[in-house]
Amino acid sequence: MNKKQVQLAMRREQLIDMAAMQRAELGQLIEPWRAPLARLDQGLNVIRYFKRHPSLILISGLALAALRPGRLGAGEWLRRGWLAWRVVRHWRSNKR
User: Fold this and answer.
1) How much is the pLDDT for 71?
2) Where are the alpha helices (H) located in the chain, listed in sequence order?
3) N or C: which end of the chain has fewer CB within 10 A?
4) The whole model's pTM is what?
């Protein structure tokens, strides 16, 4: 190899090493955000699901009005709604 090719090969190795170090550093910086971003992603999936099925919002509102949620706390209703959503999603994924 001529001198120019040797220099290019060495520079390439340096750049590959720098990229590996930067990826490792970025991974360490992002790690604390992994769980919150996963929750955000789940929330966005719920929003997208309701956008595709807007009638579910109406049905949910009517069901809440009929069942009078005043007897149970909001947390309990959220827990029940989350469970129902997961059951329906699981059922639909197995149906395909």
Assistant:
1) 63
2) 3-30, 34-52, 55-67, 74-95
3) C
4) 0.45
